[in-house]
Design goal:
Length: 580
């Protein structure tokens, strides 16, 4: 009795006289040390008699047995059930909003002590768990375990609706909310849908212009606290970064980083690729580039299975599937998913600085990449060729789009009006305007309206009168190269577009598109006089002439008039037969 009393005093006084000889952890009781040692030895002496799962101590086994007995404690808010009352109490704090524990560094509050301990590791900067494949370090063991799934390719989280698998549970939850969720949060201003109410709330502030969160440093206002926190970090970074670059005004906290940065302005690229001779400033950029030649793409997207050579590219790509557009232009309020897209938008649209000038057509560009792509339109250079059909393209992006649409047949973007599918989201956006009738771009000369801006630019060549492309057979001249290519088919008789239903061929894609409407049975054009319906607009216009008695086509021999050119051509055959 006296011994037990002495032992309880030792426990309460905090003395830990029993220590583990493996990890040096201290314990106040020998029994606790014995249980702890099983972690190192791997011994699991207590097993469940239902599922035969083993445990290191009896208390963990008892907690586990509650799973088989069934959850007894239901939550009165969401009806979720728990096997232990302590788990229910902890869960209730979520609904009640009780966050009693706060971080002493950033004042962030938590409902559980375990969450606070995990959070504090972010401030300490301690990353004790490292990946043995790519050497990336993590502060949490669970984050490392999730990361390892990227290398192993293990997708243990599968959707119970469409059976799509994911490497991380968070990606599965994002997929369910974005694709299968019936409850969509709708914006009452622009009818845009969101899977999360929090995302909708942030989006609504772009319409209401509510910016209640102010920066104490520069008094700039923001719509969300997360955006404010990101902005505040810039002020703290500027204070710590005392070294300033005289060329671009960028600031640095260390002289080493500043010296590395100055290499960019010097233009000196010491490292070159031994395959394609491309030069780089940094060794890590060269290492990343070499993966392109090796074909190794170890990072894949769980949603669309697209693969990437670097984790940064995957992280940027994942924003494509997300609905959040957190980077907003302060001039035109247009929002973007990636910071790089916002920077490109500022320099392209709002900046007057365009230092790259084309010597051929005097067009100016703010980006060197855009300038290089443009120059290929003059040189006709198409260095990216398709390995399947050998068709060449001027950019790598066009090649990928071609493979995806033509050879792989991937058309994941569906029109909600006519169910037509597209391989590219931008093409779907343009297509939707055909249903709404929206034509925001107009010609300044004849005021003709167009769906796309590039269509206006193409159209403006008609008014300029410049026709650079001529036919080598009949010498007819054209303003566009595409028009010449189409015209050449009238000489060669080539008909590359064939109908999959009746195998009828056409020289133009527009002709095939019109023809397909016959098979669909859909007749959207109707005569306003007799209400007769037509699948093609041209046939309806021809029909209207039967009511107006307008005859625009006359015979050069007998001067007889006709309302349709086809009737005139048939009549002309009568004269040619008489001559013969």
């Amino acid at each position: 009795m006296e011994e037990s009393g002495t032992q309880s005093v030792q426990i309460n006084s905090g003395t830990k006289k029993f220590s583990c000889n493996v990890c040096s952890k201290g314990f106040s009781a020998l029994g606790n040390l014995t249980i702890h040692m099983r972690i190192h030895t791997g011994e699991k002496a207590f097993s469940c008699d239902v599922c035969h799962k083993s445990f290191t101590d009896k208390s963990t086994l008892n907690k586990h047995k509650n799973i088989h007995s069934g959850p007894k404690f239901p939550c009165k808010f969401c009806l979720k059930r728990f096997s232990m009352k302590t788990s229910l109490t902890r869960h209730m704090n979520i609904h009640l909003g009780l966050k009693k524990i706060s971080c002493d560094v950033c004042s962030k509050r938590f409902t559980r002590k375990e969450s606070l301990i995990k959070h504090k590791k972010l401030h300490s900067g301690l990353k004790e768990f490292s990946c043995n494949i790519c050497s990336e370090q993590f502060s949490r063991k669970g984050t490392l375990a999730s990361h390892m799934n990227i290398h192993t390719g293990l997708k243990k989280f599968s959707c119970d609706v469409c059976l799509t698998s994911f490497t991380q549970k968070s990606h599965l939850n994002e997929h369910k909310k974005g694709v299968h969720s019936a409850t969509k949060c709708l914006c009452r201003f622009c009818n845009k849908c969101f899977s999360r109410r929090t995302t909708l709330t942030t989006h609504m502030k772009t319409h209401t212009e509510k910016t209640p969160f102010f920066c104490t440093g520069c008094h700039k206002s923001f719509s969300s606290p997360s955006t404010l926190n990101k902005h505040a970090k810039r002020h703290s970074e500027l204070k710590s970064k005392k070294i300033r670059c005289k060329v671009c005004s960028r600031r640095f906290s260390e002289s080493g980083g500043f010296k590395r940065h100055m290499i960019i302005h010097s233009g000196l690229k010491k490292l070159s690729c031994d395959v394609c001779s491309k030069c780089f400033y940094w060794k890590q950029d060269l290492s990343r580039h070499m993966k392109i030649h090796s074909g190794l793409k170890e990072f894949s997207c769980d949603i669309c299975s697209k693969q990437f050579v670097a984790k940064e590219y995957l992280r940027i790509h994942l924003k494509v599937h997300s609905e959040l557009r957190e980077h907003c232009c302060e001039i035109c309020l247009k929002s973007f998913k990636c910071k790089g897209h916002l920077i490109r938008h500022r320099t392209t649209v709002h900046s007057d600085l365009k230092k790259f000038n084309c010597d051929v057509c005097a067009k100016c560009f703010s980006h060197k990449k855009s300038f290089i792509y443009h120059m290929r339109t003059h040189t006709g250079e198409k260095q990216f060729s398709c390995s399947v059909c050998q068709k060449s393209f001027s950019t790598k992006e066009y090649l990928h789009k071609h493979i995806k649409a033509v050879h792989e047949g991937l058309k994941e973007f569906r029109c909600d009006v006519c169910s037509k599918c597209f391989s590219d989201k931008s093409n779907l956006t343009i297509h939707k305007k055909t249903h709404t009738g929206e034509k925001p771009f107009s010609c300044s000369v004849c005021h003709k309206s167009f769906i796309e801006n590039k269509s206006v630019k193409r159209h403006m060549k008609i008014h300029s009168g410049i026709k650079l492309f001529s036919c080598n057979i009949c010498s007819k001249r054209f303003a566009r190269k595409e028009s010449l290519t189409i015209h050449m088919r009238s000489h060669t008789g080539e008909k590359p577009f064939s109908c999959s239903e009746c195998h009828k061929s056409f020289p133009y894609q527009s002709g095939l598109r019109k023809h397909r409407k016959i098979h669909s049975g859909f007749k959207e054009f109707s005569c306003v006089i007799c209400l007769k319906c037509f699948a093609q607009k041209d046939n309806m216009i021809k029909h209207m002439k039967t009511h107006t008695q307008k005859k625009d086509f006359s015979c050069s021999v007998c001067h007889k008039s006709f309302s349709r050119r086809s009737d005139l051509d048939m009549h002309a055959k009568y004269h040619s037969a008489l001559i013969e």
